[in-house]
Amino acid sequence: MIISTTPTLEGRPIRDYLGIATGEVIVGANIFKDLFAGVRDIVGGRAGAYESTLRDARREAFRELSDEARRMGADAVVGVDIDYEVVGQGGSMLMVSVSGTAVRL
């Protein structure tokens, strides 16, 4: 599955537009990660636990996007947009959503 943020794929003409494909993942914040991230914020540096969680959520969202596009009969997804939102009471969860146009090449 080809996934691109561009609206076209150079040298690969789009034959059919099949519709919007999406993938969403919501992950809860872990209290221990929050504690260590707070310490990290005070002393400086990167919050590795959050980065790892965010990376995993993004990968899963792209996996869902690919799976949905494949079910639609697509060869590729173009015009992909990635969004990150804090959701839940007190911002206790992170949502990663990806969407794009499923196409047949």
Structural class per helix/strand content?
Answer: alpha+beta
**Topology, number of strands:** 4
Strand order of the largest sheet: 1-3-4-2
Beta-strand content bin: 35-45%
Number of helices: 2
Instruction: Report the end-to-end length measured between terminal Cα atoms.
Output: 11 Å
> What percent of residues adopt helix (DSSP H or I)?
25-40%
Count of the separate structural domains: 1
> For this structure, what is the CATH homologous superfamily?
Hypothetical protein apc22750. Chain B
- Poorly predicted regions: none
Instruction: Report the top-level CATH class.
Output: Alpha Beta
CATH architectural group = 2-Layer Sandwich
The CATH topology comes to: Translation Initiation Factor IF3
Organism: Devosia chinhatensis
Family: Belongs to the UPF0145 family.
Protein name: UPF0145 protein VE26_09300
Written account of the structure:
This is UPF0145 protein VE26_09300. Belongs to the UPF0145 family. InterPro entries: UPF0145_dom_sf, UPF0145_YbjQ-like. With about 100 residues, this protein is of the alpha+beta class. The chain has one domain: Translation Initiation Factor IF3 (2-Layer Sandwich). Helices cover about 35% and strands about 35% of the residues. It is built from two helices and four strands; from the N terminus they run ββααββ. Strands 1-3-4-2 form a four-stranded mixed sheet. A hairpin with a 5-residue loop joins β3 (about 75-85) and β4 (about 95-105). The longest helix is centred in the middle third of the chain and has 24 residues, at about 50-70. The model has no long low-confidence stretch (mean pLDDT about 85).
